[in-house]
Amino acid sequence: MDLLLGIILLLTTVVVANVIHLIYPKIPLSIYQIIAGVLLASLPTTATNFTLHPEIFMMVVIAPLMFNDGQNQSFFSLSRNIRPILSIAVTLSLITVIIAGTVLHLTMPKTFSFALAFMLAAIITPTDAVAVKSITTSMSVPENVNGALEYESLFNDASGIVLLDLALAAYRSGDFSIGHGLWIFVYVFFGGIIFGAILGILLINLRVRLMRSHVDIGSIVIPINVMTPIVVYWLAEELHFSGILAVVAAGVVHSILYDRMRLTSTKVQMATTTTWTIISDALNGLVFVLLGVLLPQVLRSTSLSNLGRLFGISLLLYLIMTFLRYCWVRFKLVNIGSASDQLNRDSILMALGGIHGTITLSLAFSLPVMINHHTFAFRNSMILIAAIVILISLLVGAVAYPLILPAKSQCFTPEEFRQQLITTVQFAINQLRTQAEDSRERAIVIDQLSTQMNQYHQFNQQRFNQLMNRAHKVEMQTLDQLTADGTISEREASLYAHFVSRSICRTPEHNFTEFARLFWHRIKWQLFRKRHLNPHRLNTVDNPADEDDRKLQIIKQQRQAILKILAIVNENVDKYLQSIENTTNANEVVMVGRVFFQQKQLFTRGQDLDADLITNLSIEAFQWEHSFVQEHLAAGKLSQELANALNEQISTDELVYSQSLD
């Protein structure tokens, strides 16, 4: 029970941290998550006393993250940049571990043996492109630097993991052979890549066969995709290959599937992307929250003097890695496509981009608790050093990047996008009103289209109440006019007044004047009803069956009478709403129209709808929206970026609607 409660608390903490970052995004998300983890650890519950099992942690947390990174990459881009990737992700990682480990050993030989120093250096070598993006969201990062950082973080994670395994093996045995270590590195590294690629191809063929024979089976294909990294990692580790590299290779093979064939249906593609986004965000956040939870435990077991010493070690390691990264690019040991006049700037950006995050923490957590049947005494200290290195890299990046990079220029603001989308939807709705015949199907499509505006418009309750009262005023004026010119009888007016008064009294807020007006109408129509209604018309009937038939006939007549008045009232209210509608009150106007539409729906239930007509009108409306955007783009009223964003939103809405037809 404590385990289940602990998982729920961790996920809840991740969500809370994400919400706070959404409100105030100037601080990196990982910092929020670490702080949230520290606060979670202070709760008076034993559910947060976590014991991490390294093997399970690597398989359940690291493997899915690495697989998702792999399948999000373009195989064409990877193959075109293979040399820079190998240089910065493999060679630089190996050089960094050797130099950092050697300096650490020579500086403190009594504390750090070569194996232990290399182990720590391997842990802090992997970088995190997600952490870099969280800092540079509002900044314009050069494309060549951004691409190099992404490719590096994809493969240097695997390099760090392989090197950590070698260092752990040397630490356990107390002996290390360069020749044997090199052979193990090649076997584990390339064996993992080959095995993962083969297994990925087999799983893809399985998915292809399933899709060909059963057309659309997202409930099977998506679980297979989600379980792939766990299965691939477990099998690779059983064969003593690098499970992480196998997972990355399988992910890259899956990216080929998406790039070339697009075999799965649109629904499956969207569901898969959404599922992996949720999984990736949750696992990334989970690692940082876990760090925050475990930090108090680690700090309590560390003396103040030792804490200062560990901070000094962390700072030394960070400076060594940053300096090596700068030199690697500055002296062209890797070609990232920098212009000669921008080489120094790009070198600094690459050096600062060595921000550490999820993988570094995960590797630290994956350290075994017991080695050779003895407690691994350095485990807590190495976790703390890794955490400090992460914090230093995050803080330095958060301070330095804004000083170097210009702010990202936005071609349109969220407000401009909102107004243009509302204008576009209004155009499609007006086209439906003028070009399609009045019908229940048209009203349903208009109501569906109006929901496109809801998520981009903050609902104003006061404005809605004002519009609702004005609409009811139009309704009463229409009823008076229909009664005065004899279009409807006094009894029909009385029936409708009874219906309207009950509907409006259900409204959360209405002013006294409106209520008094309705009350007066009610009294007036009641007087007319008593004056003109024949009191002998409803005499009892001997036959009960005839009595039931008579009551049903009266109810049917009443329904038809109200429906006839509703059609005229809704038309007048709709004209009034169209006359006052603008981008400011669009959402409230839609909500008022929906109230009157739903009133009419109450009296038309049970009547058949033409589903084909609804579908055709909806498709036509989306086409009008696209045409409106294209016309305004051609006329120079919209920028290309804003037009692309609008078309993307319209296409997404159309896709969601199409899926709802299944």
Plain-language structure description:
With 662 residues, this protein is mostly helical. It has three domains: 2-404, Up-down Bundle (Na+/H+ antiporter like fold), CATH 1.20.1530.20; 414-460 and 611-662, no CATH class; 461-534 and 546-584, no CATH class. The protein contains 25 helices and two strands. β1 (370-371) and β2 form a beta hairpin. α1 crosses α12 (266-300). The longest helix has 37 residues, at 178-214. It starts with a helix and ends with a helix. Its main location: membrane.
Using brief descriptors, characterize the structure shown:
1% strand, mainly alpha, Cation/H_exchanger_TM, Na+/H+ antiporter like fold, cell membrane, sodium transport, Cation/H_exchanger_CPA1, two-stranded antiparallel ribbon, 662 residues, Sodium:proton antiporter, single chain, 25 helices
Structural class: mainly alpha
How much helix is in the residues? over 70%
Total number of helical segments?
25
User: What is the H/E string?
Assistant: HHHHHHHHHHHHHHHEEHHHHHHHHHH
| Shape type | elongated
Ends apart, CA distance between termini: 40 Å
Question: What integer is the average pLDDT?
Answer: 79
**Main sheet: which strands, in order across?**
1-2
Subcellular location: Cell membrane
Pfam families: Na_H_Exchanger (PF00999)
Protein name: Sodium:proton antiporter
Keywords: Cell membrane, Ion transport, Membrane, Sodium, Sodium transport, Transmembrane, Transmembrane helix, Transport
Topology:
Elements: H1 2-23, H2 29-41, H3 54-71, H4 75-80, H5 82-107, H6 114-123, H7 129-135, H8 143-173, H9 178-214, H10 218-238, H11 243-260, H12 266-300, H13 304-330, H14 343-352, H15 358-365, E1 370-371, E2 374-375, H16 379-404, H17 414-435, H18 440-450, H19 461-484, H20 490-505, H21 512-532, H22 544-580, H23 586-602, H24 611-634, H25 640-660
Antiparallel strand pairs: 1-2
Helix pairs in contact: 1-2, 1-12, 2-12, 3-10, 3-11, 3-12, 3-15, 5-6, 5-8, 5-13, 6-8, 8-9, 9-10, 9-11, 10-11, 10-12, 12-16, 13-14, 13-16, 15-16, 17-18, 17-24, 18-24, 19-22, 19-23, 20-21, 20-22, 22-23, 24-25
